[in-house]
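Q: How would the structure tokens look for this protein?
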Amino acid sequence: MKRWSWSAVVLAALMPCLAQAGMIGIGAYGGLSIPIAQDDNGQGPIFGLRVPVRLAPMFTVEPFFAMTQAGDADQEIGGIQYTRDGFEATGFGANLLLTFGDKIQFYPFGGLSMSTLSREGSEDLELTGFNFGLGLGVSPVEKVRLHLRGEGQSLIKDERGRMFGNVTVGVSYDLFPFGQ
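A: Here is the predicted structure in token form.
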């Protein structure tokens, strides 16, 4: 599926919900991305932007953009030690959050993404991602929410795949309500 068509799918999914009272916000996050069962990548920072769209008190759709710089890794091949550069990854997608609570929220979430992994000396990989995890949101003041999340991410193309565990902290700000 082309990259632009993911945006169309997300927009089409949101259209029936626009008649309800909701909120659109913006947020930023950063943290640590840890490769799972990969010898050719080290852990590295992850950061990005989120646009939470609260459709109802319990449902939030959250388009996001993410960037990761995986760390270098040492590999032994045929008795010779090599240091491989880590991947640079960029991706975008959307998560659905099932939020419980008001000032303190606990939420499971899951979603889909498209990611590109680049590394010097290797072909770029364009992979479909499946994200899932748990989050905790705390609102110290009106319109501002602090987030702590643990996430599993599985990137797949054909028979090849990569898995990551991400731990992030972030902040979001409610910009404006809609549908009231």
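The chain has a mean pLDDT of 87.

The helical segments are 3-14.

Upvote if useful.
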